[in-house]
Amino acid sequence: MIDNQKFKLLFVCFLWLCSWPLCAQEISVQLGNKNIALNETFTITLSISNDEIKNHSTFPDIQGFTKVGVSSNTSTTIINGDMSSTHSVTQSYIPQKEGRFRLKSFTMQVNGQTLRSQGDVIVVSAPREQQQTDPFAYDPFEDIFPRLPQAAANQKDDAFFSISANKKEVFVGEGLNVVISFIVGENNSTDLQFYKLGEQLAEIVKKIKPKDCWEENFGIETIEGVPVNINGKRYTEYRMYQATYFPLNTEPIRFPSAALKMVKYNLVAGGGLFGQAQEEFKSFVSQPVVVKVKELPPHPLRNSVPVGNYRLDETLGKTAVQTGQSITYEFKVRGEGNLSSLNAPEMFTTAAMDIYPPNVRQEISRNFGRVTGVKAFSYSILPKEAGIFKLSDVFGLVFFNPTTARYDTLRPNASFTVTGASKHDMDVQQIEADGFYNRILEVSNKLRSTDREEQLKVWANVVLLAMLSITIFFIFKKKRQA
């Protein structure tokens, strides 16, 4: 007869195998710099690899700090056809004064899993001068009291429902940030509560979401009140949804009015010492919003150019090589715009070198009403002729800048020198493109279905679970017989 200890061990193994897919997810929580100035921010970041953060609990409050907004970041890398990704959500905090502040240990729920942090001591020192090296950087202190659209500023009620856009007109492909929020004045005396907010919000978003637009959703999972200032009057904004839309054609973007039902409590007399609260429903209706979409100015590439405010960062592995020696070159586009739809730069072929398809790395940040990031194309170049080569003759990316309303071209400044004999007949096996092309002649070229490998893994897990189930069945059977 199998004793209880062995039975418990088998049962633990069974539970571990059942939960293995969840454990395979790499989820972490990171605390930002704990030594900051009064004009800097402290952050808490949730990250997950090869998946997305579908839901998470509320970030902790920190005494002496003010929450100023949640941002999200998506990083995608494609190397030799293999893709990996990381998704993160970051809560920013602004210190209220100098001193030492304790972030107590806390737990958070992320995709159904529990993350724990031991907390830390945050030291806030005197303000220090900020060196703005990135023209696309954004100062979160500008958003302590966000400037709301005029439609919201014209409201006279102490509480109102708002669907707002940050621009009245945009070009095709230009980003339009849209916010859905409920706003309550600090002098509001009515007790209001949300009513089935998840269901209502899903219907509202479905109703107002425009067609023929690329959406970058800011992924708001928790709703917290944030102080805002409208015409010198203080309000609290409860932001429920935020997204940036990039129109794909010139059709006007229309956001119809929508209603949000709230529970309102009125205090009535005769209900005891403190009165009695009477519950009723009240609907708050937003104002409709229409945004004009303008056609791009005439240009031969008008229908295919990316739209955004971009600049080029580049990295060249070597500046002097021999013919037949490979060079790595990274063409990195940085800025604000729809980076997800941005394609590789145009490449002008030349017989003097071979250029192989790039590895792609993309990082997109959605914060403070903007979609910014980096998209990098990493090329392997194999020179076959001697000479001095300017990469501006090889690569170029035409784009439209909606800020200046002009077309521009990103062209490299890098160049390199090649010496040695001609290598026109060089075999491809000599290239060093991250080791990938070196193995071309060593591996089989027979096509193989990747679906079969996945099916084998599934069946292997099924067999293991079946064996454990049979074992547990016989254990119970023997115990009954005993």
State the main characteristics.
482 residues, Immunoglobulin-like, 5-stranded antiparallel β-sheet, globular
Give Rg in angstroms: 29 Å
Query: Structural class, please?
Result: mainly beta
The main pleated sheet reads as: 8 strands, antiparallel
Number of strands: 30
Global outline = globular
The percent range for strand residues is over 45%
Global mean pLDDT: 81
Could you estimate the helical fraction of the residues in percent?
10-25%
Count of the domains: 4
Q: List low-pLDDT spans.
A: 14-24, 141-156, 428-434
Number of helices: 4
Query: How far is the first residue's CA from the last residue's CA?
Result: 8 Å
Q: Order of strands across the biggest sheet?
A: 1-3-5-4-25-26-23-21
Layout of strands and helices, then pairs:
Elements: H1 4-23, E1 27-31, E2 35-37, E3 42-49, E4 65-79, E5 82-95, E6 99-103, E7 106-110, E8 113-117, E9 120-125, H2 150-153, E10 159-165, E11 169-171, E12 176-185, E13 191-194, H3 197-208, E14 213-217, E15 225-230, E16 233-247, E17 253-255, E18 259-268, E19 276-285, E20 289-294, E21 308-316, E22 320-322, E23 327-337, E24 346-347, E25 353-367, E26 370-383, E27 387-390, E28 395-401, E29 406-410, E30 415-419, H4 450-481
Parallel strand pairs: 2-9, 11-20, 22-30
Antiparallel strand pairs: 1-3, 3-5, 4-5, 4-25, 6-9, 7-8, 10-12, 12-16, 13-18, 14-16, 15-16, 17-20, 18-19, 21-23, 23-26, 24-28, 25-26, 27-30, 28-29
Helix pairs in contact: 1-4
